[in-house]
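agent> call fold_tool(seq_1)
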Amino acid sequence: MKNLVILIGRIAAAPETRHAGETAITSFTLVTDRPKLVDGKTVKNEAGYTETLAEFHRVTAFNGLGTSVAKHKKKGDLVEVQGRLHYSKWTDREGVDRYAVEIVAEEVLFL
């Protein structure tokens, strides 16, 4: 069994780095596109191109990898992210269970 994610997309906003002790944690949002489907068929625009829908993915990179991304990449830059899915669950102040999913990056390729 393997938990592996590979995404190619553009960075939606400047990466942000915070520190937890000596660990640097860099977060950014990656935007990918997927074809727009209606009744199981791709939708084409008037020019004949396939219409797409944007999907937003939360990515977290640690230490040197994250620091490098934050230093060298900015909004709009194209990258490939390889990593794994990480699921979180917590209870908010009102006692409601909340869930989140993120990609923990193991490699970020600058394209």
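agent> call fold_tool(seq_2)
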Amino acid sequence: MKLSRGMSVFLVAFGVWSWVIWPTFLRNIWKDTRSWDAGPTAFFTVHLVLVVASLTFGTVIGVLGIRGLRALRSK
């Protein structure tokens, strides 16, 4: 399957966006008083799982976009 240049750029932008937004979100959750009560709370754990999943998906999607751009260049 070949990706268009526009779709490849979109996928790369999505990957970059994920790495800008989710670490900031995690820092904000880390500072939230609901996150800690003699250890991490369920609130923190759920949000941590969300951040890890989102960063994983963002990375995979970004890599697909980069591979799409490289495939277009090698033509």
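agent> summarizing second result for user.
The chain has one domain: 5-74. The helical segments are 5-31, 42-73.
agent> awaiting next instruction.
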